[in-house]
Automatic annotation (TrEMBL):
It comes from the Bacteria. SUPFAM superfamilies: CheY-like, Methylesterase CheB, C-terminal domain. Its EC number is 3.1.1.61, 3.5.1.44. It catalyses: [protein]-L-glutamate 5-O-methyl ester + H2O = L-glutamyl-[protein] + methanol + H(+); L-glutaminyl-[protein] + H2O = L-glutamyl-[protein] + NH4(+). CDD domains: CheB_Rec (cd16432), REC_CheB-like (cd17541). Keywords: Chemotaxis, Cytoplasm, Hydrolase, Phosphoprotein. The gene is cheB. It is found in: Cytoplasm. Involved in chemotaxis. Part of a chemotaxis signal transduction system that modulates chemotaxis in response to various stimuli. Catalyzes the demethylation of specific methylglutamate residues introduced into the chemoreceptors (methyl-accepting chemotaxis proteins or MCP) by CheR. Also mediates the irreversible deamidation of specific glutamine residues to glutamic acid. Phosphorylated by CheA. Phosphorylation of the N-terminal regulatory domain activates the methylesterase activity. This is Protein-glutamate methylesterase/protein-glutamine glutaminase. Belongs to the CheB family. The active site is at S164, H190, D286. It comes from Candidatus Pantoea formicae.
Length: 351
């Protein structure tokens, strides 16, 4: 079995030692080197050619973001950012994802559930996902198209989207193309607490539609996108007029909270044939079964194709279950979601 070759860049000796121990405890990976700053890391990368890099943001001699930007131009590779949980840290992490980082993990601390073993298992999972990622594909797919023409909408129509690894940039591509005149959108993106609010605020500044971190009992309106808060499930609930979202702290599903399956199951039950849904890039199988439930309920469903995915895990599982009515490139997800309402597919679903 070929082991994943990992390299860690962090100015903290304690953190480097901890990362080294966690990685070398995994049967399928090894730490080939650690570096205290990007300048030393640059030479080691040339010598050792690691498969995955973990990278701190705040470091001496060269900022982690500057190093990442140069690295992705000259030698694209899967990078996982080690991020602080501060407001500045979440903002810097989102910048890193825009610059080509595949994923991130908050530094261990009081806001990380469980103990160091839990954090280590999460890091190992992220390294495995990153090792399967194609950074060139990532950079080519994270484009932003023009805003699409609006469609006639009503409050019974819903768009549901699920994503994980690579999802923040995939969502940026999808949401920035959405016109104000579009159905209400609910989103489950695998992301820890403390980051979804910053992500929603950033999307809101880039999009014509309004984008917010969802609050319990908030109504879902056309031209609005609600993102499930980190470490919380979100479900859709039908009311006498339209829908609202509920937020809860029930147990993780598929090891995730928020879970795409939880959101998709509720949309299937509450909206059925009045919904369209897309499952985007991500590792694992969360959302695949829920997408099938949506299709069986009469919703129009789609999966992102392998050519435009950072990690073709969740979409692959959905396709294997025959959960997707169509498989599409990321660049056209927004258009196809709108087309599913424009083309009177709701009427066809009822036939």
């Amino acid at each position: 079995m070929k082991r994943i070759r990992v390299m860690a860049v962090d100015d903290s000796a304690l953190m480097r030692n901890m990362l080294n121990a966690i990685v070398n405890q995994q049967a399928d990976m090894e730490m080939v080197a650690t570096a205290p700053d990007p300048l030393i890391a640059r030479d080691l990368i040339k010598q050792l050619n690691p498969d995955v890099l973990t990278l701190d943001i705040d470091m001496p001699r060269m900022d982690g973001l500057d190093f990442l930007s140069r690295l992705m131009r000259l030698r694209p590779m899967p990078v996982i950012m080690i991020s602080s949980m501060t407001t500045r840290g979440s903002s810097a992490t989102l910048n890193a994802l825009e610059h080509g980082a595949v994923d991130f993990i908050p530094k261990p601390g009081n806001q990380i559930p469980g103990d160091l073993a839990v954090w280590g298992a999460l890091l190992a999972d992220k390294i495995r996902g990153a090792a399967k990622a194609n950074p060139n594909r990532y950079l080519n797919s994270a484009t932003v198209g023009a805003v699409l023409p609006g469609i006639k909408t009503d409050i019974t129509q819903v768009i549901a989207i699920g994503a994980s690894t690579g999802g923040t940039e995939a969502l940026r591509c999808v949401l920035t193309q959405m016109p104000v005149s579009s159905p209400g959108i609910v989103i489950a993106q695998h992301m820890p607490a403390g980051f979804t609010r910053s992500f929603a605020q950033r999307m809101d500044t880039l999009c014509q539609i309004a984008v917010r971190e969802a609050e319990h009992g908030e109504p879902l309106m056309p031209g609005n996108a609600l993102i499930a808060p980190g470490d919380r499930h979100m479900t859709l609930v039908r009311r006498s007029r339209g829908y609202e979202v509920h937020i809860d702290e029930n147990a993780p599903v598929n090891r995730h909270r928020p879970s795409v399956d939880v959101l998709f199951d509720s949309v299937a039950q509450q909206a059925g044939k009045f919904a369209s849904a897309a499952i985007l890039t991500g590792m694992g199988n969360d959302g695949a079964r829920g997408l099938l439930t949506l299709r069986q309920a009469g919703a129009w469903t789609m999966a992102q194709n392998e050519a435009s995915c950072v990690v073709f895990g969740m979409p692959r599982e959905a396709i294997a279950l025959d959960a997707a009515c169509e498989v599409v490139d990321l660049d056209v997800v927004s258009q196809r979601l709108l087309d599913s309402f424009n083309n009177n597919l709701q009427r066809k679903r009822a036939d």
